[in-house]
Design a protein that fits this description.
This protein is an alpha/beta fold. About 55% of the residues lie in helices and about 10% in strands.
């Protein structure tokens, strides 16, 4: 904390990933001090060093495996000891699965649940004890466009993101009048590399590419929507339309359609 001043920070989990880095850059550009964490120590340190050369805002980082209860508790103990306070939390950390559930490693299934659900809940609960005494605490939880439909071949991932969506809406209502806003963000894919774009095109065709949005584009609008107090934000007009169309399709029918598409995609990714 520069100059010993207690100024509210924005905490971002998964800060070394594509969306996490884009959000960190966006919030830094807007003048917010940052507290960044990620399980990937080297990537986090490299990113923080690079971002630090581009901005004057204070950036604090601490590697943390959010599936490790002791590591999470130690990080929050450190936060309390140093007296950090926060006016923002961006729960970006997440992971997923591709392929049939009966072939999924049990350890991998456990990791998905711990990162996407347990860690998000614990980080959200913890931030409430370290919020800035004044102003609004803005919590952003990254769900997925996939949370609106059952997704065979990605069954745990989609269901975990549905939890994020519903939890965020419920908590936003529960905290009404307490200067806390909770927003669920439901993006489609976000291309990070040319190889990723090619993979989406091969697996899902033109529609897959049309639904995707650049991480920088998404980060800017996430920031703006959070300031507005939005409860649920779906990036991209086409994705909003797809969400509305999905509401009139029976769940079983959606599952069959999506299952066929992801089964083909999984086969292509393995080939």
């Amino acid at each position: 904390m520069k100059g010993g001043t207690v100024k509210p920070y924005v905490m971002i989990t998964g800060a070394a990933g594509g969306l996490g880095k884009a959000l960190a850059a966006e919030y830094a550009e807007r003048g917010h001090p940052l507290f960044l964490t990620d399980v990937a120590r080297d990537r986090l340190e490299t990113f923080v060093a690079g971002l630090g050369r581009l901005t004057d805002v204070d950036i604090v980082s601490r590697p943390c495996d959010l599936t490790d209860e002791r590591a999470v508790d130690a990080m929050w103990s450190w936060v309390g000891t140093l007296g950090f306070v926060f006016d923002g939390l961006l729960n970006v950390a997440g992971t997923g699965n591709n392929g049939r559930f009966d072939r999924l490693d049990v350890g991998r299934a456990r990791t998905i649940l711990r990162v996407n659900i347990e860690a998000l809940v614990i980080m959200t609960r913890r931030i409430l004890d370290h919020r800035a005494p004044e102003g609004v605490l803005r919590i952003v939880n990254i769900a997925s466009l996939g949370c609106f439909s059952p997704m065979p071949q990605k069954s745990i991932y989609a269901a975990s993101k549905r939890f994020v969506h519903d939890f965020s809406i419920a908590l936003n209502e529960e905290m009404r009048g307490q200067n806390v806003n909770v927003m669920a963000v439901c993006p489609a894919g976000m291309p990070a590399t040319p190889a990723h774009v090619k993979s989406v095109n091969d697996c899902h065709g033109a529609l897959g590419l049309l639904t995707e949005k650049n991480v920088g584009w998404v980060a800017k609008r996430v920031y703006e929507q959070s300031l507005k107090g939005t409860a649920v934000y779906i990036p991209g007009r086409l994705n909003v339309l797809l969400r509305r169309l999905s509401q009139v399709i029976p769940e079983g029918t959606k599952a069959r359609i999506i299952g066929r598409r992801w089964e083909r995609a999984t086969e292509l990714m393995r080939s």
